[in-house]
Amino acid sequence: MSKGLLIVISGPSGAGKGTICKELLNELDLNLSISATTRDARVGEVEGENYFFITEDKFKDMLLDNQFLEHAEVYNNYYGTPKEYVFDMLEEGKDVLLEIDIQGALSIKEIYPDGVFIFILPPSMQELRNRIEKRATETKEAMVKRLDSAYKELKYVFKYDYGVLNDTVDSAVDNINAIIKAEKCKVNRQINLIKNIKEV
Q: Taking a C-beta distance cutoff of 8 angstroms, is the pair 121, 164 a contact?
C-alpha cells in the first residue's frame, strides 16, 4: 500500500485558502488535519472534529516530547499539529489536507519534506484588496497592515513546490487536483508497486 500524501496549503490572507480547502474536501477523498489547542471549545465545536482540546500542561508536555509538526501561540492560547495523528493517517494510505500559515508550513517542510506544499496566489494585489474590503471587518489601518503583510508573504512562494493562482475557485481546485494526481504518479511514491511488478 502506498503512503498517503500530506498536502499543505498556505498563502497570504485574502487569497482564498479556506474556500479552496472546503471545496477540496467536498470533491476529493481527503482527510483534514486536526490541530490541538489549549483554548476552550466554542459553541458547536466538537472534540476530535474541530480541534483536540487539551490543557496547557498537556500541550507543553507534548511540545517537550517533540510531538508536533509545528506549533504557535496565538492570543495566549497554543495551537499545534500533532505528528502522530497525521503520520498514522499517512501510513494508512490516507491523504491529509492541512491549511496553515506560511511559518507553520515551512516548519513542516523541514520535518516532512515529502509533503506537497502549495502556495495560493491572488490574481492581483488589487483583487486581494477587493476581497479583504468585501469582508467589511477591517479598519483602514488594519487593511494597510494586512496588505503590507501579504506583499511580504508573497516572497515565500519560491519555497513551495507549487503556486496555484486563485482566479476562480473551480480552476484552483482543478489545478490542485491535477497536482495531487501527478504527485501520486511520481516514481519515488510508487516504490512498492514497482518492486511487485519487477518480482512478477
A: yes
